[in-house]
UniProtKB/TrEMBL annotation:
<dbReference type="InterPro" id="IPR016898">
    <property type="entry name" value="Polyphosphate_phosphotransfera"/>
</dbReference>
<dbReference type="InterPro" id="IPR022486">
    <property type="entry name" value="PPK2_PA0141"/>
</dbReference>
<comment type="subunit">
    <text>Homotetramer.</text>
</comment>
<keyword id="KW-0808">Transferase</keyword>
<comment type="function">
    <text>Uses inorganic polyphosphate (polyP) as a donor to convert GDP to GTP or ADP to ATP.</text>
</comment>
<dbReference type="InterPro" id="IPR027417">
    <property type="entry name" value="P-loop_NTPase"/>
</dbReference>
<dbReference type="InterPro" id="IPR022488">
    <property type="entry name" value="PPK2-related"/>
</dbReference>
<protein>
    <recommendedName>
        <fullName>ADP/GDP-polyphosphate phosphotransferase</fullName>
        <ecNumber>2.7.4.-</ecNumber>
    </recommendedName>
</protein>
<keyword id="KW-0418">Kinase</keyword>
<comment type="similarity">
    <text>Belongs to the polyphosphate kinase 2 (PPK2) family. Class I subfamily.</text>
</comment>
<feature type="domain" description="Polyphosphate kinase-2-related">
    <location>
        <begin position="7"/>
        <end position="229"/>
    </location>
</feature>
<dbReference type="GO" id="GO:0008976">
    <property type="term" value="F:polyphosphate kinase activity"/>
</dbReference>
<dbReference type="Pfam" id="PF03976">
    <property type="entry name" value="PPK2"/>
</dbReference>
Length: 260
């Protein structure tokens, strides 16, 4: 745990205006036809889900599309590796937010033996060219690596074990991955070495303090996109129609209990 974690009241105070800016970004993306792709990667328990929730909880899911693909099917395993990710790239007026991405091959698949070393190296050599093509097609591509310390990862995993509200977050793979900290460190280092490019750099965020991390990431993300807030139209609620004789019917409505 960090020495001085941000309090929830302070966090909400800073988050509200940032979320208003995300709405402004959303409206600009819709109006301009911009295409934005945001990739979130990181160690287990690094807080990707919390960051994505903070980004998307006040915006439209029709514009901010969260992409969190399950394990590949047998058919998908037989396809070109990137094939199942391509349909989820953004079209005009969309922001695609990847909760893990094609970089699974450079991380969990490589470390846990779900692909061969040859496949991992081939991926690392080819993906910069693929990402150049994505960027040259007009997509704003942002890649974030969320970092967490060994001590904080241990604390978060133990919290999942102890808290019945979080136990669903704990998988057998998490437990296997936990023991392979330095294998993941080596895989991360090589991934960044090969894929940190001028057209698609990696941005690294310290997320030991989740609240500070979310604020820092959202602030940085907003600064990377050249959006211009649109002028807000003046909106006045119209007058509501007259009842014109309407009376509520005497129906046997099944009201729910009100224990609170």
């Amino acid at each position: 745990m960090t020495d001085n974690p941000m309090k929830n009241k302070e966090y909400r105070h800073h988050l509200e205006p940032l979320q208003a800016e995300l709405v402004a970004l959303q409206e600009w993306v819709k109006a301009s036809g911009a295409k934005v792709c945001v990739v979130f990667e990181g160690r287990d328990t690094a807080g990707k889900g919390g960051v994505i929730k903070a980004i998307t909880e006040r915006v439209s899911p029709r514009v901010f599309r969260v992409v969190a693909l399950p394990a590949p099917t047998e058919r998908e395993k037989s396809q070109m590796y990137l094939q199942r990710y391509v349909p989820h790239l953004p079209a005009a007026g969309e922001i695609a937010v990847f909760d893990r991405s094609w970089y699974n091959r450079a991380g969990v698949e490589r470390v846990m033996g779900f692909c061969t070393e040859e496949q991992a190296h081939q991926f690392l050599e080819l993906i910069p060219t693929v990402e150049r093509a994505i960027v040259e097609s007009g997509v704003i591509l942002l890649k974030y690596w969320l970092e967490v310390s060994e001590e904080e990862q241990t604390r978060r995993l133990q919290s999942r074990i102890d808290d019945p509200r979080k136990i669903w977050k704990l998988s057998d793979l998490d437990l296997k991955s936990y023991s392979r900290w330095y294998d993941y460190s080596r895989a991360r280092d090589e991934m960044i070495h090969f894929t940190d490019t001028g057209w698609a750099p990696w941005f690294v965020a310290d997320n030991d303090d989740k609240k500070r991390g979310r604020l820092n990431i959202i602030t940085h993300l907003l600064g990377q996109i050249p959006y211009e807030p649109l002028e807000r139209p003046h909106i006045t609620l119209p007058a509501r129609q007259e009842a014109d004789g309407y009376e509520p019917p005497k129906l046997p409505l099944h009201w729910i209990p009100t224990p609170y």
